[in-house]
Amino acid sequence: MLVVEALSRPNLFPASFTLEDGECVVVRGPSGAGKSLLLRALADLDPSEGRVVLDGAERDAMPAPRWRSLVGYVPAEPGWWAETAREHFLDWDSLAPLARRLNLRDGIGDDPVARLSTGERQRLALLRALERRPRVLLLDEPTSALDPDSTHQAEAILAEWRAETGMAVLWVSHDPTQAPRVATRALIVERGSVREERA
Ligand SMILES: Nc1ncnc2c1ncn2[C@@H]1O[C@H](COP(=O)(O)OP(=O)(O)OP(=O)(O)O)[C@@H](O)[C@H]1O
Q: Which residues are in the ABC transporter domain (predicted)?
């Protein structure tokens, strides 16, 4: 469903790979290797060269806002523009069951974002991205601040979502035990070069 051909930008050599419907591929590699650069290029947040095709539609032929609604991105440090958490959602109340599964306490939607913990913000950013129902979700260390139970809940929710909607996931993780739990394939990024391996 996603075809990437010779995608490149400064500090990232041309990368080619595909993502199948409902697939999850982990992205691994040393700190500073170019993993976030790869995700940001795919999300069309920074200028890049190469060809990216989603469900037969060329990225370059699509308005950027349309592309960004199809290809969701959860950065390692998500941004917040309104005071309370709920203001960042289309319909916060409908997400209550998922929020509970992620061990987020009731009422958190009305708290000022600035007062929330790093792990709380991380889980809210994941929910915010899922709510937009992207075809592809790019995750930059989405569970790095979570306890083991919340991590497993997030992994389970993403697996269910992929199975139900066909959403594909590209998941940057530094946790060697997480990769085989969530994916069968890995993209290894080293000094700006991308190659494929088993997860
Ligand atoms: N806009 C940019 N243009 C060019 N190079 C950049 C840009 N932003 C970051 N870099 C550099 O590119 C390199 C790769 O950065 P990147 O953030 O992709 O690493 P990473 O693999 O995600 O690392 P980490 O695991 O620490 O998050 C770094 O040396 C960084 O300084």
A: 2-199
